[in-house]
Design brief:
The protein is mostly beta strands. The protein is about 5% helix and about 35% strand.
Length: about 425
């Protein structure tokens, strides 16, 4: 953890200053240099255009296959922006089921690929025992703007440790539901949970929600999951080695997976999994923090004996990382842009930092080498990004919803040029 407003990233809510956290890094750790170059594609200036305000603690933004935006409020509500206004009645209210403090709360919602026909959607929240819950709900028959709170069924409810929930839900291009659980909190993952096969903490999971629809556990295991039938890790596990993956997303064009992971003292990172991956990747935490050796030999005795050492080729390095030298401290991952408003942004991955509010667009400059260019706009305390049905990008500081737009598109009615013929 690292900050107050969205404490799913930070420890400042526990009274530790950023300087204390950064200064606590072990100087003896070996490291590779952190790099962040500038892309050469030339981004036009972008604007943050307010969509609506007066919100509280937004944790995710998504769509259900139509023009509406579904806004997840950490207090246990899902709200709807219908394109004109924020509807007064929440789409879903599970606030009575949800713990709401520090990193806990309702963290995301994802709609079934066949939502238009079956009405199923899924939520990730922390319950009143502070354990994560993956649950399925249904929309109310005859009212597309209201869910049926009595329709809820629990798919998973694993024990947790009070922090680093991850919390993102996304359906992949394969139709399976992916979700990430963080390492459980406490600095430096003292129990080495992210590398411990028998725990779900620090893992990405992948399940088939079209199996056992009407009978517990209301999901099944995809037959090609990498650890099926092999003991630990659990059959549900898709990848391991995460600290607190705060937002991941699939490229809607290619199916590639981008996973941002909040660092400890040294690095913020974005990991990549190409479409067609067979899973099983180890992204390194807590042995590695990005490309920084966080736990040099001898490895923490709490880690399994077979845990690889720093820089082992079995670890998958991030494609993007940055350090904390300029005050940056906590990544909020976004999306590959596939909209039409901002052609210069096409194919770029957008992300930001909670502490400084800096926003970047990263692109593959060739051979899998990703470089990042800072955007000319910023959003301090950015809590999440989202994608509309049209591929346009939204972002929020928890209380105000914005979309990214090219200034030229704002004045497409001719106002800026003085041409009033379109009025």
């Amino acid at each position: 953890m690292r900050h107050d407003f969205a404490p799913f990233h930070g420890l400042l809510s526990l009274g530790l200053s950023l300087a204390t956290l950064v200064g606590a890094s072990a100087s003896a750790h070996a490291e590779r240099p952190a790099t962040r170059g500038l892309a050469t594609k030339g981004l036009a200036d972008l604007a943050l255009v307010e969509v609506t305000s007066g919100l509280t603690d937004l944790t995710s933004i998504t769509h259900a296959g139509d023009e509406r935006l579904f806004l997840t409020d950490k207090a246990g509500f899902v709200r709807i922006w219908d394109g004109d206004s924020l509807l007064p009645t929440p789409f879903l209210d599970i606030s009575a089921l949800t713990s709401f403090s520090l990193e806990q709360g309702l963290l995301s919602v994802a709609f079934h690929p066949d939502y238009a026909s079956n009405g199923y959607f899924f939520v990730y929240y922390s319950d009143n025992a502070t354990d994560p819950v993956i649950a399925r709900y249904e929309v109310t028959a005859g009212n597309p703007d209201l869910a049926d709170p009595a329709s809820g069924v629990t798919l998973m409810n694993p024990p947790h440790f009070g922090g680093h929930y991850g919390g993102q839900l996304q359906f992949g291009p394969d139709g399976y539901l992916y979700f990430a659980i963080g390492d459980g909190g406490q600095q430096q993952d003292p129990d080495c949970r992210a590398q411990t096969p028998g725990l779900l903490q620090g893992k990405m999971l992948r399940i088939d929600v079209d199996q056992n629809v009407d009978t517990p556990p209301h999901y099944g295991i995809p037959g090609d999951n990498p650890f099926v039938g092999g003991g630990d890790p659990a059959d549900e596990v898709w990848a391991i080695g995460f600290r607190n993956p705060w937002r991941f997303s699939f490229d809607r064009l290619t199916g590639d997976l981008f996973i941002s992971d909040v660092g400890q003292f040294e690095r913020e990172e974005v990991s990549f999994q190409a479409t067609g991956s067979t899973g099983g990747e180890n992204y390194g935490w807590k042995i590695m923090e990005g490309t920084f050796c966080f736990d040099p030999d001898p490895i923490d005795v709490d880690c399994p004996v077979a845990t690889p050492s720093c820089f082992d080729p079995s670890f998958t390095d991030p494609i993007i990382e940055y350090d904390h030298d300029s005050g940056d401290c906590s990544i909020t991952g976004g999306y590959i842009y596939r909209g039409t408003r901002n052609p210069e942004l096409q194919g770029s991955y957008v992300y930001g930092d909670w502490c400084t509010g800096k926003l970047w667009a990263a692109s593959d400059s060739g051979g899998g080498n990703w470089t990042s260019e800072p955007l000319t706009v910023s959003l301090p305390a950015i809590t999440t990004w989202g994608e509309g049905v049209d591929g346009e990008i939204y972002l929020t500081n928890g209380s105000t919803l914005y979309h990214l737009s090219n200034p030229a598109s704002i004045f497409s009615d001719g106002f800026e040029s003085g041409d009033t013929s379109a009025w």
